[in-house]
Amino acid sequence: MRFFLLLLGFMIPFQPAQAAVDIALRGQDPVRIEDVYHQKGIPYIAVEDALSAVGLSGHWNAIQHTFRIKTKRGWAEISPASGYLKLSDEYYPLDEKPRFIDGRLRVTDNFILNQLAQLTGRSIYLRNLDPETESSPEQESSGLEKFFAFLLNKKMTETGPLIRAVAIDPGHGGLDSGVIAASGYKEKQLNLEIAEKLAKKIKMRLGVPIYLSRDGDYELSAEQRLETASREDVDIWLLLHAQATFSPEIEGVSLFIRPEDIGQKIPEEEVAGQLVSESLQLAQELVKALRENEISVRGIYPSSRLSLGRGNLPTVQVELGYLSHPEELLRLQNPEYQNHIVQALYAGIRRFATHNKEKSNGVN
Ligand SMILES: [Zn+2]
């Protein structure tokens, strides 16, 4: 075993950045596509592979330098490095430009879930089977703005089987700063930065919609905070906050769930589906993933402030750390550490979703 692990550790740096995706039209068996390249965390799939998975066809036009897709509404055209899809003389903006990678024109998961779904007139299911390799640093914020603007306009479609959508509530905003560190750094800013990064990561890896209660520095009413969490397709609700205390040595992440979800203290190894609330399961997966990423966790606690919202919706409030701890404060402001904590939260969500999927498969 030790030899195997050593060998694995030795081999990983030489593996190409490849992964696989499953693609299907709603109600049909998925097609696995292995020839997938990740760039900055975004999967790029050869357009021919994506088309055949959803029952469309197309060809490369070497003279016009475009790829033509045959649809019921006529020919659709995309071009490498062009940010538009052309369909009957109309141009539709793309989230990411198609790219030639390794000799094939490739499109992203967004293109498949949105543009291809529209061209087929049917919902498309896409699951990214990326083996949790850490992606490169996040893209610039202008891309993020575009991304959220796009999300707002997007019509809900049936998506992957793991979870349908995630609601994230970055605590505070506007005049309500939350905790303010001695340096002036404000909790509302940290909450939003982590929320945006986490939203992007879940969206890219799981291909599901993410609803943020706020995407800027403004105040929300209690009703507005609940609005995103009460959408029908939301399967997970995460609330992001940070803490402060008079004891500057206290640090670490704390997780809060509704008091009725805590139940009796059950050893982590003995968690058996029915006995433990889904909120507790989600919190436990988050704790596990955070600890695996060497982030210190204080524990899971009850919070009566969390009694609002859909009662059975898996809900966890994550207190990201203590702004009163000088080193943790610096860490929390560091984009690299932020990516690290986001990766851990994502991994916990993914594992929770995977277990739930297995469970529901067992029942059906
Ligand atoms: Zn707070």
Primary descriptors:
single chain, 364 residues, alpha+beta, Copper Amine Oxidase, Chain A, domain 1, Aminopeptidase, 2 domains, six-stranded mixed sheet, 10 helices, 17 strands, disordered N terminus, binds zinc ion
Description:
This protein has 364 residues and is α+β, with helices and mostly antiparallel strands. The chain folds into two domains: 16-128, Copper Amine Oxidase, Chain A, domain 1; 141-363, Zn-dependent exopeptidases (Aminopeptidase). Helices cover 35% and strands 27% of the residues. The strands form three sheets. Strands 9-10-3-2-1-11 form a six-stranded antiparallel beta sheet. A six-stranded mixed beta sheet has the order 13-12-14-17-15-16, with helices on both faces. The protein has a five-stranded antiparallel beta sheet with strand order 4-5-6-7-8, with helices on one face. A hairpin with a 2-residue loop joins strand 2 and strand 3. Helix 5 (187-206) packs across helix 10 (335-363) and helix 8 crosses helix 10 (335-363). The longest helix is centred in the last third of the chain and has 29 residues, at 335-363. The protein starts with a helix and ends with a helix. The relative contact order is 0.11. It binds zinc ion. Residues 171-172, 178, 187, 241 line the site of zinc ion.
